[in-house]
Amino acid sequence: MSTKRVLVTGAAGRVGRAAVRGLVARGHHVVGLDVRPTPGLPPGQSVVAPLSDIDALRKAAAGVDCLIHLAATPDDARYPRGTPPDDGDNFLSELVPNNVIAPYQIMEAARVLKIPRVVLASTGQVIGGHLLAGNIPVTAAHPYRPRYLYAATKVFLEALGQVYATEHGIEVLAVRLGWCPRDPGQVAEIAADELFQDVFLSPGDAGRFFAATAEAANLPPFAVVYATSRARHTLRYDLSDANRLLGWGPTESWPTGASEFA
Ligand SMILES: NC(=O)c1ccc[n+]([C@@H]2O[C@H](COP(=O)([O-])OP(=O)(O)OC[C@H]3O[C@@H](n4cnc5c(N)ncnc54)[C@H](O)[C@@H]3O)[C@@H](O)[C@H]2O)c1
User: Fold this and answer.
1) Is ligand 1 within 6 A of the CB of residue 210?
2) 214-226 CB burial, b ≥16 within 10 A, e <16
3) For the chain, the helix, strand and coil percentages under 3-state DSSP, each to the nearest 5
4) How many angstroms separate the alpha carbon of residue 70 from the centre of ligand 1?
5) Neighbours of 70 (CB within 10 A)
6) Is pLDDT at 145 greater than 70 in this prediction?
């Protein structure tokens, strides 16, 4: 296996830290970009900048084999939305700049710098309606049934990736991630619900998954895959495409690694 040069955005976040760890463990050269320093990387490989700093983004991305884009606002501020005047809506304040404009800047950087592969962090929330309706296991072929505004931005993200794959020849892999909890409150929510346990994604499985996305020899121009740990009760997401394209399969299940935050 050849060593890859990989840029991970959102590298200091919950999934980002797991991805960095998985990539470093496989010997890859990783640069992290986040608004805060990336744990586990030396300062020279940890770029502290917002994605709106286009110069910093392009400097960090120059020459990489794979760009793994995780930085985002990772959920709605409130679901369901409150009532006026306290709607609690983060669409214009966070979701549009971080989840719509920033992905455009990522794909533009990939186009201009001729980065061959981009991995985009989507979410199972884009097909959340199927999960709730019991249309399982959900595959990449199921039509979108987004849960809410955050999920709608991820539908855009996937469509954006498809545009750049088709028009600019970049390999784009959109990953509908399961639930890798960010805090003890989320761990408690998962502990209380069998469905959530089935879509749990452990940090260890996430790390090995993202290493596989950088290592896979050939990918189709555009693909959508799911990434979760092993279902505890019932298979909710079809993981066969991830296995076929990346040679990856989960080895852990809820609650392994669930309470690992820092
Ligand atoms: N954790 C999950 O269960 C889960 C599930 C589905 C999808 N996702 C997606 O995975 C990705 C990572 O999620 P997470 O759970 O690690 O979230 P997180 O909030 O823990 O990490 C996100 C990181 O991105 C950084 N960031 C956000 N906006 C930025 C910007 N404009 N410029 C630079 N850095 C910025 C934050 O500082 C943070 O470190 C997101 O795209 C999220 O939508 C996560």
Assistant:
1) no
2) bbbeebeebbbbb
3) 40, 15, 40
4) 5
5) 28
6) yes
Measured distance CA(30)–CA(21) in Å, rounded: 9
Confidence of residue 53 (pLDDT cuts 50, 70, 90): very high
Are 180 and 206 spatial neighbours (Cβ–Cβ below 8 Å)? yes
The residues spanned by each domain of the chain are: 5-246
Band (pLDDT 50/70/90 cuts) for residue 262 is low
pLDDT band at 212 (very low <50, low <70, confident <90, very high): very high
Q: Quick one: DSSP state of residue 237? A: B
Residue of 9, 15, 98 with the most ligand 1 atoms within 8 Å of its CB, for mutation: 15
Q: Quick one: average pLDDT of 242-251?
A: 98
Domain 5-246 has CATH 3.40.50.720: yes
Residue 87 has pLDDT above 90, yes or no: no
